[in-house]
Amino acid sequence: MDLGTIIWNTVALFLTLCIFSFLYKDNPFYKFAEHLVVGVSAGYFAIILYFNGFIPKVWEPVTQKGEWWYLLPTILGMMTWARFSKKWSWISRFAIAFYMGIAVGVAIPLEMQQRVIKQLHATMLPVHFTNIQGVWNLLIMLGVLCGLIYFFFSMGHKGVVGGAARLGIWILMIGFGAGFGLTVMGRISLLADRITEIHNWYLMVTKALWGF
Amino acid sequence: MNMNKSFHYFLFSFFLSFFFVFFANSPASDFSNTSVQAPAPPLNMKAFDTPNDNGHSITITWELSPDDGAGKSNVISYEILRSDNPDSGFVVRRMVAAGVNTYEDGGVKEKKSEDYFPSHKNFYYRVRANAEKGSSLSDVSPPAYAYGQLFHTGRTVILVACVIFTVFTIMFIRKAKKGEELYIRPLAGIEAVDEAIGRATEMGKPILYILGLGTAADVATIASFTILARISKMTAEYRTPILVPCNDPIVMIVAQETVKAAYLDAGRPEMYKEDNIFYVTSMQFAYVAAVNGIMVRERPATNFYLGKFYAESLILAETGSVAGSIQISGTDEIAQIPFFVAATDYTLIGEELYAASAYLGKEPLLLGSLKAQDWGKALVMISLILGGLAASFHLDFFIKLFAVKL
Fold this sequence. Notes:
B: 406 residues, Immunoglobulin-like, Rossmann fold, four-stranded antiparallel sheet, 13 strands, 46% helix
């Protein structure tokens, strides 16, 4: 085991414990780890954007392929820098308006496709009582209908509508409960992974210091 | 004499066996074997422009060789060959397994790319059926060229749905503008907003507004911007500071503009502090660490988590709960809603997040769109019931109306 591995593993252990110390209360160790990770990640993203964004999507197309039209979105992006000046900050709104317009225009048909039509098509199931699948299909369709009724905003949840909406929220909550349990199990495995790391560090150090 | 005769017999039989051995291993015998083993060629070659694409692919179909899965049953693969000349120059484009009778020969539109596929250029195709030994070529297909389509017919249903929804929206906005009363049922999470801002004002502490990890293009983030505008206006009126740490630089810019406009709208532009809407980092858990730090140091009276959230939802909500803040959350990320339900005071589930801005604003434009959403949902429910009946009675034509082809 070389010294470098021991030092870096010890640093990793120290930072892990710094973050865990937040479970007790806010303290200087947590603040140190917090500022370190924020600073490192911000710098890391700046480099990632430069090498994975600017170089392949602006510099190379313009300088090597002569695709000068890539300069147009670049100019739009540079317009956001006008925010640094109080006098010229209004220029940045053009870029934002362009971006938001494109984003909404793309999002509406996409959402309609992914969240409405595809779901609707997948829920059109044959209902019958010859086998258990037909009954499950009926339950799925009833669950979807009741869930939709819960999300009606222009009708009060009273009478039949209220009953269906209540059934709808129950079905939603059953689904959320299952999701909660599943995700918590995933988080437990992440915790176990960190504990294992700490244990491995202990084994590594004892072996390096005392040879066992 | 007898010995001489025997020798001649021996010599004759030697040459005879040599003759058989030689011709049995000659290329000619190979040909005869191949002709026995070679599969029948694929039939009825067709090549046509791939529908609903950007004009850089051609689809080829053929009838399987009669020896594919039947007859001699010896076809193991097909090779698709292409040329721009019907008589020569065919090169292999792709090999597919036996039993496959269609192939989409496509590429990219960039001319400098190795995978470039030209549009508006005639191509001819042949398909070769391969057996263990031997192969046979189909006839040459008629010429075909690729061209792009402006309208994707497989997505007509989406267009129809968008048009219907737009008509509903315009119709109800006009009704709302005429002064017609549009009822909207109370929503606990929204009604708590006033109380939450009032509490922050009384305590003299800031409000923390988290837009989530989504980009400015996500629908949840867009919905959150409109809610942020309403809440900022209220905070400006109450003279309560609002903190908006952002995960994305573009989101930060939009949030700054939103809050600035809200303060201007409230008649208090001098109170707007751009530094209160700031970028932290784009890395998920580094962002969470920083926001957790803000929560325990600034002790905001109210935390809003509205937008797109992922694994950080529970960490944020738990820290806010420990810090003693009132918490109102909302997301359309189904996997994260349970955590918000468990750890925050009020949760806007899915579409309630989209509806929240209409609730807070009560403007005709937003109320009309909310009513249109309800009518849209009613239409979805009717379609679902009819679809269920159609599936039960095997009326597949109705279900196919809703099939989206990508």
